[in-house]
From TrEMBL:
Residues 180-384 form the Tyr recombinase domain. The lineage of its organism: Bacteria, Bacillati, Bacillota, Clostridia, Peptostreptococcales. It comes from Romboutsia ilealis. It comes from the Bacteria. The keyword Transferase does not apply. Pfam families: Phage_int_SAM_3, Phage_integrase. This is Phage integrase, N-terminal SAM-like domain. Residues 73-158 form the Core-binding (CB) domain. Site-specific tyrosine recombinase, which acts by catalyzing the cutting and rejoining of the recombining DNA molecules. Belongs to the 'phage' integrase family. GO terms for biological process: DNA integration; DNA recombination. The keyword DNA-binding applies. Keywords: DNA integration, DNA recombination, DNA-binding. PANTHER family: INTA PROTEIN, PHAGE INTEGRASE-RELATED.
């Protein structure tokens, strides 16, 4: 009688269809049933190296004990393992928070999360998304956010041979029929706001936001060494944010590199704001001398009275309060960035230049966000055509 193949061994063969090779198949024995027949797990791929990598990775996982040989691991268990073992090193804290939030709110203890990874199919995901939309009244943006973060998770599962395909790529996502409107301050509202913030603790932060289009994290991370008063230029080198430490669970103030390589940019500062920044620096130096050794000198441009970085929730709350007093519809702090871009377009600054100043990695992002400004430009173009085509 032939000897049984030992658990953990694997074999790789050509995958044939109608007499023609269509790929490769690897298989591994993971146990035996009650009749003594081997229970095998299979992996498929286009090339021999693909299936070999999947097989070796699976064997490695079995040895490490991160996946059981009887494949009882669920989608929820895999998402947790993938997030904390594979992605935690690559994700910035804010991004990790979003992934962890998706896991906690939509994967853990959900009907989708309880499905065994080996049994997962498109139907499971589609049915869950449909329920979220039609029963739980979740907006399309939420469902798309779940799928965006589940996709790389299942991509790794496919790579390691736990599933045959990344089923997130096959679902039908709901369409968002709501037209996205970008709220900005009009020129008149902007002027009222500038008048209202004179003497306010965050006056300079608001002015620099309106005059440079920096993101809130970029403003909070701005240091005096980033400002060249001779050339009137400002360089974005870092961001500052309050994020939860994925290991300790404690919120910390973190300095990080900018959002993308395009976010690391140099921007001209309007002359009036540059002069106000010089005065702001003098006042901060006086405050530092007054406080003495108790002052926390991290060289940040925007701080509280003793040098601490500003709470990232404070600017938004103050902005809302000020606008309400002015009877102006409140906007989010990020809308000051949109206001800056709108003023650039209104001044007929070329879109490519706006893209560079805003730090967008793709000009399509710039154009998609600011199409509302383009309406006036279209009317101007038609008026010019009217003067040309005189019949």
């Amino acid at each position: 009688m032939a000897n049984k193949r030992a658990n953990g061994e694997g074999s790789i063969v050509k995958r044939m269809r109608n007499g023609k090779q269509v790929g490769w198949r690897a298989s591994i024995t993971i146990g035996y049933n009650d009749n003594g027949k081997p229970i095998r797990k299979e992996f498929e791929g286009k090339t021999q190296s693909d299936v070999k990598n999947k097989l070796e990775q699976y064997k490695k996982e079995m040895l490490l004990g991160t996946i059981s040989s009887d494949d009882k691991i669920t989608v929820s268990e895999w998402f947790y393992t993938w997030l904390y073992d594979h992605r935690i090193q690559d994700l910035k804290p804010k991004s990790f928070e979003k992934y962890e939030g998706i896991y906690r709110n939509y994967i853990k203890d959900s009907e989708l999360g309880k499905v065994k990874l080996k049994d997962l199919r498109v139907t499971h995901i589609q049915r869950y998304y449909n329920k979220l939309q039609k029963v739980d009244n979740k907006p399309p943006s939420t469902i798309k956010g779940i799928n965006t973060r589940l996709k790389p998770c299942l991509g790794e599962a496919e790579k390691q041979g736990y599933i045959q395909k990344n089923y997130c790529k096959m679902v039908t996502l709901p369409k968002d029929n709501n037209t996205k409107t970008i709220k900005v301050l009009s020129k008149e509202e902007q002027q009222k706001f500038i008048e209202a913030i004179k003497g306010h603790k965050l006056e300079m932060l608001f002015l620099v936001a309106l005059g440079t289009g920096l993101r809130l994290g970029e403003l909070l991370g701005l240091k005096w060494s980033d400002i060249d008063f001779n050339t009137g230029m400002l360089t974005v080198n870092r961001t500052l944010s309050r994020s939860k430490n994925p290991v300790t669970g404690v919120y910390e103030i973190l300095e990080q590199t900018p959002k993308t390589k395009n976010s690391n940019r140099t921007i001209p500062i309007p002359n009036d704001i540059l002069n106000k920044l010089k005065e702001h620096k003098k006042n901060q130096n006086k405050q530092r001398l007054f406080i003495g050794e108790a002052y926390i000198n991290n060289n940040y441009v925007f701080t509280d009275d003793i040098g601490n970085s500003i709470d990232d929730k404070r600017p938004g709350r103050n902005l809302t309060s000020i606008l309400k007093k002015l009877n102006i519809e409140p906007i989010k702090f990020h809308a000051l960035r949109h206001t800056y871009a709108t003023r650039l377009f209104e001044a007929n600054i070329p879109p490519k230049t706006v893209q560079i100043l805003m730090g967008h990695y793709d000009i399509s992002i710039t154009m998609d966000i600011y199409t509302h400004v383009m309406d006036d430009t279209k009317l101007e173009a038609v008026e010019k055509l009217n003067s040309i085509f005189i019949i």
